[in-house]
């Protein structure tokens, strides 16, 4: 009776210790905030330009051709496509983890058992067949399939596979976001290249005017109407404008090569019609309502899917505290002589083993894994909220930028017209000795800068149009 009681208490103690090993540390998790403002600058229009495909949004055939080539040849995008394939392979790997593993194999070995053991003593009196006893040195050969299976009683393996699926989907959205940025980057560089062409033309035309003014100044000097100082100042202005010309020529080369890099080709001429740049009319994209960003922006969807994967990683890490059930089985043939392997059923051998095991003492590793998974889940929450906040601010900034750039362009255009008129006036006054040569120089310098800034403003307007489209989540469809 005492022995039975002791065994009972030992059993109860072991069961208590076993289930105490299943306890999980309590951790505080944070829920993401998915609320966004109701509108952009009190606009209730739900029409959204992000739903427009990029072929319809960018109507320039040269630009469309560049974007097409970039989407096919861009190395960074192709690397991302391989990352997606890697994520897909991870899904397949985790899907196979909760299915039975079957392997086929065999082996051979030699045993020499001591005669002073129970097995040796039994073999000494056992006849393999009449008159033939078991040999002292006994070969052993076997062949057959082995099955092993971890029974997913806590859905740890299924949740792990589901987390891999979310990670795969997040990588797809990451690719979409990369496509959005690639389309925008090609368009921005294309408009920048056209702007540099126009600015270079302005510089060349200004050089013609300055050289004419220099020629007139030399004539005036020969007539003793001006000094050598005026001639030298005009020459210096010509040299300054020529150096500016070389600067813009280098900008054109670098911008062309940047576009060539994006489209995945070696340096070559980029086809464009720069003469039409000044006639481009920037359009204000329809921003819709902020809640549409959650569906249109790939980076928001990527952050949301990554958050779901992080949540499941916490569930998987939590399941490590619970016992796991494994089952293994073997069915095959075994014999000490290869000639007897096919002598069924005497050579048949089978085994079936099930095991239930869980962590009991020293759970530091799985505890650390669980806490790390929880911290990463909280990080994913903040990352999601940060992405949503950044998306809203990007759209709001670009909408304001479009309005202010339109006003800036109109004002700058008025300045250019006024300075253009003053250029011819100052040159006439200088010829008639009614104005100083410095007035001509300063006027020429001002009109050059104003015209360059006007083209720069037009480029900024086109870039704002592209960046608003990107910020809204357009370009990847």
TrEMBL record:
Where does it reside?
A: Cell membrane
Spell out the family assignment given in the record's similarity comment: Belongs to the outer membrane factor (OMF) (TC 1.B.17) family.
Domain of life of the organism encoding this protein? Bacteria
Q: Name the chain's protein.
A: TolC family protein
Q: What is the lineage of its organism?
A: Bacteria, Pseudomonadati, Bacteroidota, Cytophagia, Cytophagales
PANTHER family the record matches: OUTER MEMBRANE CATION EFFLUX PROTEIN, OUTER MEMBRANE PROTEIN-RELATED
Q: Which residues form a coiled coil?
A: 395-472
Concerning Pfam families, the annotation shows:
OEP
For this UniProt entry, what is the primary localization, expressed as one broad class? membrane
Q: Which UniProt keywords apply?
A: Coiled coil, Lipoprotein, Membrane, Palmitate, Transmembrane, Transmembrane beta strand
Membrane topology field: Lipid-anchor
């Amino acid at each position: 009776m005492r022995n039975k009681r002791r065994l009972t208490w030992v059993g109860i103690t072991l069961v208590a210790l076993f289930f105490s090993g299943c306890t999980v540390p309590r951790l505080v998790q944070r829920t993401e905030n998915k609320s966004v403002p109701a509108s952009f600058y009190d606009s209730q229009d739900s029409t959204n330009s992000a739903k427009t495909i990029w072929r319809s949004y960018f109507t320039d055939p040269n630009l469309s051709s560049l974007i097409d080539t970039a989407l096919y040849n861009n190395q960074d995008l192709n690397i991302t496509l391989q990352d997606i394939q890697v994520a897909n392979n991870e899904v397949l790997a985790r899907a196979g983890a909760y299915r039975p593993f079957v392997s086929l194999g065999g082996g051979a070995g030699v045993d020499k058992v001591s005669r002073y053991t129970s097995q040796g003593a039994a073999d000494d009196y056992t006849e393999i067949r009449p008159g033939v006893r078991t040999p002292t040195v006994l070969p052993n050969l076997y062949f057959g399939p082995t099955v092993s299976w971890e029974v997913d009683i806590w859905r740890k393996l299924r949740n792990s596979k589901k987390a891999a699926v979310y990670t795969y989907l997040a990588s797809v959205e990451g690719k979409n976001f990369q496509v959005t940025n690639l389309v925008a980057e090609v368009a921005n560089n294309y408009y920048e290249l056209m702007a540099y062409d126009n600015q270079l033309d302005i510089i060349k035309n200004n050089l013609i005017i300055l050289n004419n003014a220099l020629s007139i100044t030399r004539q005036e000097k020969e007539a003793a109407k001006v000094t050598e100082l005026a001639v030298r100042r005009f020459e210096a202005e010509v040299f300054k404008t020529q150096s500016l010309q070389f600067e813009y020529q280098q900008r054109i080369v670098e911008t062309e090569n940047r576009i060539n890099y994006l489209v995945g080709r070696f340096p070559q001429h980029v086809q464009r019609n720069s003469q039409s740049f000044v006639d481009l009319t920037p359009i204000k994209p329809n921003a819709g309502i902020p809640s549409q960003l959650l569906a249109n922006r790939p980076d928001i969807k990527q952050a949301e899917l990554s958050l779901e994967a992080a949540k499941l990683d916490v569930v998987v890490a939590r399941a490590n505290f619970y016992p796991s059930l494994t089952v293994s089985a073997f069915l095959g043939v075994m014999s000490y002589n290869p000639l007897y392997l096919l002598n069924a059923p005497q050579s048949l051998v089978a085994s079936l083993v099930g095991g239930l095991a869980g962590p009991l003492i020293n759970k530091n590793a799985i505890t650390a894994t669980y806490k790390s998974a929880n911290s990463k889940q909280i990080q994913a929450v903040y990352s999601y909220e940060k992405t949503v906040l950044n998306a809203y601010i990007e759209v709001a900034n670009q909408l304001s930028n479009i309005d202010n750039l339109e006003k800036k362009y109109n004002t700058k255009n008025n300045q250019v017209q006024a300075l253009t008129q003053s250029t011819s006036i100052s040159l006439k006054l200088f010829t008639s000795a009614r104005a100083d040569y410095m007035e001509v120089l300063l006027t020429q310098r001002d009109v050059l800068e104003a015209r360059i800034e006007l083209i720069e403003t037009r480029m900024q307007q086109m870039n704002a149009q592209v960046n608003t489209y990107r910020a809204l989540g357009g370009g990847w469809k």
